[in-house]
Amino acid sequence: MNRFVTAERALRKAAPHQLLDAVRRVLGEQYGADSVELLLADYGLTVLQPVPAPPCTRAPVPVHGSPAGRAFGAQEPVVETLPGGRARVHLPVTVRGDRLGVLSVALADRDRPPGCLAELADIAEVLGHEVVVAERDTDLYLRARRKERLTLAAEMQWQLLPGRSCSRPEFDLGAQLEPAYTIFGDNFDWSADAERLVLYVSNGMGEGIDASLLTNLAVNALRNARRAGIGIDDQAALADQAVYAHYRGRSYLSVLMFDFELATGRAKVVDAGSPRLLRLRRGSVQRVTFDAQLPLGMFEETDYEVQEFRAEPGDRLVFVSDGVHSVSSPEGEAYGEAALSRAILATRLLPAAEVPRAILRELGGHRGRPAADDDALVVCLDWHGR
């Protein structure tokens, strides 16, 4: 039995809370590793937090300016030279494009087995899949991702999200919410199958737990309709009814809904009081507008109409909430479309998963203070086509 199969079997047999113990044991036995740490990205994507299983000896590692952070950002193994002829290998822990963190493995450099790096990268990928499954049964990995306590509203919102990034041959997706530990109303959701990608970007009104409850109701109503095989116009109508039935127009939610054909890039769109969309195509940024319709839940039995859109290979689509384009500087200047266009051009060489974080850093500089007054949501979709 080869080393990789041994490691894979050990991970699949391990108890959910003992994945790190299992990978330490098998990497020590099969690869001579003398130190193994699992570092998970925190909710704000600023640090990589060690999973708190003894003997954890590492402090949180910054995403920027560290070898582990480079492996996380570039999604490639990074080898760090250590004293005494040793090396530490940092391996991305990623599941279908969703970046979870980094597996750091210290090895005696001169004793590294042939093909070791590629095998370790495969083991890190298997570990990522096992972590996602294990989160159904243990809080260990969810606790490790937070460098401070989440508000209840933020806890509900993060649990509602599908992930923060996703990769397929036809597209790459990345998204981020801020303030990560106190978000309440903004949200995104996606689902892809063999033929289609459905994407929702939403902005719920209100603050705190009230905004989170509204978003949870609306997103689950949309999912319920989508999973019944209903078109996006009727998805919007049914979610509108669900929100109105509960709030009677006192609270409502804006959402921009896309249903893409993966084979052609053609999309059906419903714009229900939406967040904004900007498109980077052949080096030029333009705002894409649709006929705005009523937000979900504002009035009873609203009918929604589908509009048409087409993405071309090479397009980058950036969706932002009003917590981005309406943010003011200390002098009262709104961030606005011009500054957002500059940020999109400045990040054009970054992968889709890195773009939201980079734009939100730029936004924080414009705001001039660490605390945000409103949720800020950025979703980036790179369209490759077939």
UniProtKB/TrEMBL annotation:
Gene3D superfamilies: PPM-type phosphatase domain
Domain PPM-type phosphatase: 168-383
Highest taxon of the lineage: Bacteria
InterPro entries, A to Z: Bact_Sigma-Reg, PPM-type-like_dom_sf, PPM-type_phosphatase-like_dom
Keyword line: Hydrolase
Protein name: PP2C family protein-serine/threonine phosphatase
Organism, as annotated: Streptomyces tropicalis
